[in-house]
Amino acid sequence: xxxxxxxxxxxxxxxxxxxxxxxxxxxxxxxxxxxxxxxxxxxxxxxxxxxxxxxxxxxxxxxxxxxxxxxxxxxxxxxxxxxxxxxxxxxxxxxxxxxxxxxxxxxxxxxxxxxxxxxxxxxxxxxxxxxxxxxxxxxxxxxxxxxxxxxxxxxxxxxxxxxxxxxxxxxxxxxxxxxxxxxxxxxxxxxxxxxxxxxxxxxxxxxxxxxxxxxxxxxxxxxxxxxxxxxxxxxxxxxxxxxxxxxxxxxxxxxxxxxxxxxxxxxxxxxxxxxxxxxxxxxxxxxxxxxxxxxxxxxxxxxxxxxxxxxxxxxxxxxxxxxxxxxxxxxxxxxxxxxxxxxxxxxxxxxxxxxxxxxxxxxxxxxxxxxxxxxxxxxxxxxxxxxxxxxxxxxxxxxxxxxxxxxxxxxxxxxxxxxxxxxxxxxxxxxxxxxxxxxxxxxxxxxxxxxxxxxxxxxxxxxxxxxxxxxxxxxxxxxxxxxxxxxxxxxxxxxxxxxxxxxxxxxxxxxxxxxxxxxxxxxxxxxxxxxxxxxxxxxxxxxxxxxxxxxxxxxxxxxxxxxxxxxxxxxxxxxxxxxxxxxxxxxxxxxxxxxxxxxxxxxxxxxxxxxx
Amino acid sequence: xxxxxxxxxxxxxxxxxxxxxxxxxxxxxxxxxxxxxxxxxxxxxxxxxxxxxxxxxxxxxxxxxxxxxxxxxxxxxxxxxxxxxxxxxxxxxxxxxxxxxxxxxxxxxxxxxxxxxxxxxxxxxxxxxxxxxxxxxxxxxxxxxxxxxxxxxxxxxxxxxxxxxxxxxxxxx
Lengths: 612, 173
Prior knowledge:
heterodimer, A: alpha/beta, Rossmann fold, 5 domains
């Protein structure tokens, strides 16, 4: 740990003999970009050069900048190499470690002719972040309990058990103002208090690691990069509320997270941080892993508990709330992964420190998963109150390839789209609600002029139709009907009644559904109608898709000037509706036969086919 | 007649594989049930293990679980049919999962899916006639920074484009 510590390079405990540390990002995304081969190459080369003792090689959790992976950082030089391949790994060892020269062409460059950047601290993507939840991610070996402890791990639990009564811990969490990070923003302190006040002795604590929102991977990175923080936080929660058993419910789509969590649970148990007589006290707390099986609705509290108990994941009416009656009818508290990840820092640094970050109504930071049409896709953690503009343009690098920003989708299928005129909105729980969206879990998908907002609404509604559990008619039938109406609009088959009917149905589904899935399913429709109504109108009254996305409404034409008469389009046309213009070499599309498949557009080598 | 609910009775009815192979599969399944103390709470975890061992949820494996856990068969089928991860039909040697999450969709995942359908000659949810590939969609696998993404077997193919599909499939044949 010689040079690594969230407190800053060089502030960690020293390890004799280590001259350098190589950190290789081994988060899920980088693994898929070829990290294992890079890691193995580095290990082999260090051995060959006799450097294995002097240079420590560590596979860490997610460093955040997915599009730049695989990433290798060299400490204490504070140099970051991006898009590293095994050949590049060879050069790092030979030229940098042995030869003492930084490999300039493997550094990050903002553009081809920009100056190379050595350290992440020189990039806004990194230096504008404030990492609390992601403090250890990208710095430590996620499977090593020793490295976790070396980075102040388990200090919070030890302090809580030795210096604070359970009541004091409850007060600290309440005073911090921490609000649930799963999407609802319910005050964590209040929820903990509800479980503490509930009658015992059987009480349960659950970590919701289902992260079903498409476009969200914040929790995944914490689970893969810093799993011990969740184990410690749940143990602190058990101490404060009197719970004796906990579950982590992880979605089956995260095999690496499942593996690392299992390792963390086993190691924590072995070290006396979990199980009986924790840290030598008479506290007993055990955690079991429960894997999901591909149901988005199981992210909902009551459905999640049903799934933990091995049943169909169908929600139940609330009240009773989980803290009144949950697992096997006993009081149960459910918190999101990111909420838990904030707990050890709050206990270590105090609630006032936490309050000093973020906004009055939403203290602390928020992890956002930047995805979609944005240059720097990946994970970032910023104080609440950061503006959308800062997030997308300063940190995210803006929209690539010269396209225009159109909307930011937040909150997944329960959220909404925020258009360009609200770019200066401060990201926190309350302000996002005012513009018709929600914070949600932190997934933020950037869209540009190539996205059609009707199509986006249809995408989310289709998702809800698939994932609806089927129990209540407003959701089961309502989502399907809304989807059919959106299909009509996208196909140019809507009439003057369609949009009013859609709005009315949306209101009904929102107010009459049994659970959060149905209640929020209409949000994407309602928000896109609110901010992009003109797009809907164009589809209905003009039978036109302004973004040229909705297939049936696109008109394909051949640009006479650009056409060279090669005939490729005609050969690829499935309905053979492209003909030579009489007496000429050039081609034209006979619209009556056109099924808007787009083949001609895809194959033309001269970009002569245009969409209108 | 072997006693119902025992490994012997399950094997004697299946006839699909060699007896030692079958026996071993059911032994693994029995071990999974015992690991969870035959608790009905662990039904989903046990179904995962069964699908791992058998490749899919074969009817006799499901009946075995029902007997071990002392649950009505309808309850077990009720649970496994709710969750999209579980399959009662054999899958291909490689399962192709094209991620259709928001980020992947915005980056053209639907076109990638179409290309897979074209190349394999099957639709979503189907398996190629040679038993090599099953094509499915996933709702989000959490690698949004590298959209669009397709997972084949255990390999994650990131930033995949329609033009890459033919080449990617070739590597698995």
